[in-house]
Amino acid sequence: xxxxxxxxxxxxxxxxxxxxxxxxxxxxxxxxxxxxxxxxxxxxxxxxxxxxxxxxxxxxxxxxxxxxxxxxxxxxxxxxxxxxxxxxxxxxxxxxxxxxxxxxxxxxxxxxxxxxxxxxxxxxxxxxxxxxxxxxxxxxxxxxxxxxxxxxxxxxxxxxxxxxxxxxxxxxxxxxxxxxxxxxxxxxxxxxxxxxxxxxxxxxxxxxxxxxxxxxxxxxxxxxxxxxxxxxxxxxxxxxxxxxxxxxxxxxxxxxxxxxxxxxxxxxxxxxxxxxxxxxxxxxxxxxxxxxxxxxxxxxxxxxxxxxxxxxxxxxxxxxxxxxxxxxxxxxxxxxxxxxxxxxx
Length: 345
Ligand SMILES: *Cc1c(COP(=O)(O)O)cnc(C)c1O
Hints:
Elements: E1 8-9, H1 20-28, H2 40-53, E2 57-61, H3 64-75, E3 81-85, H4 89-92, H5 97-100, E4 105-109, H6 118-122, E5 135-141, H7 154-167, E6 171-174, H8 178-185, H9 189-193, E7 198-202, E8 213-217, H10 219-231, H11 240-252, H12 257-272, E9 288-292, H13 299-308, E10 311-312, E11 314-315, E12 320-324, H14 334-344
Parallel strand pairs: 1-10, 3-4, 3-5, 5-6, 6-7
Antiparallel strand pairs: 2-8, 7-8, 9-12, 11-12
Helix pairs in contact: 1-11, 2-11, 3-10, 8-12, 12-14
The protein binds pyridoxal-5'-phosphate (PLP).
Pyridoxal-5'-phosphate binds next to helix 3.
């Protein structure tokens, strides 16, 4: 058994541990019962997050999955259809909650390797007819996880949102890593979320907080989402203990995300030089690097061999492995990662 220090964990940025400042803030947090509206630290986090995103209000959630689900439910009525990417986290990784819990019919558009175009969304719209479900919502994802951390620019987000607006339904952005996207474009995160009605982002990923995600939107939407959060079992009591870490995350972690993106770019360039690895390094925009394994192996085998060489990775499908860079991965680790990949071929 090797020591924890020697393992390079690239499975996800969720593995980041809270900083000393976060633990300190958690220990000192002033708390109350947040279901009764009494937790000042939760309120402070929600106000700060809403302000940073340029939205009226925000709501603290135990996870991004729950925040997305509450958003779907707050924007729609059961039985409506929701336009969602076939490679999106909401459709692919959230246990089918969109149908099972929210009672919605996913109508899929192609995303991931390619971005949806406004024309592709328009092609899904149908004139009202007694046969058709009502279209209730468009969901976008920025950065796009299965797309390899790709960024939707403000202009593209606006062009896609305009299709929904013209058709009379709102837009929800799954922005778990939207701060990585803002860092990559060197823009204020407000620019990326301005075109959408609601946005979720994760505190527990690149921002290093131990727990939590935030959903933001207008006051009325957040009031509806609060009821859905309670319904889903996400009403938390002295949640200020974890919200305190989220506040520190917003104050201290956002500015350093360029580093994670830069390490990912450097890592991708090094991996792309390895024979047999399928990777377009120029397409890596943020902290996610997805590569194809050589023909003579498969992704689960590759991930297992990497683990034997003390590098942990995620399997995306039979042929693709994912590395995610984060606060615990410096550029210094790149030679060891590359060596582990070579040794695993
Ligand atoms: C991680 C992630 C989520 C879900 O967040 P959890 O806190 O893990 O439930 C949603 N969307 C995207 C794009 C993600 O990467």
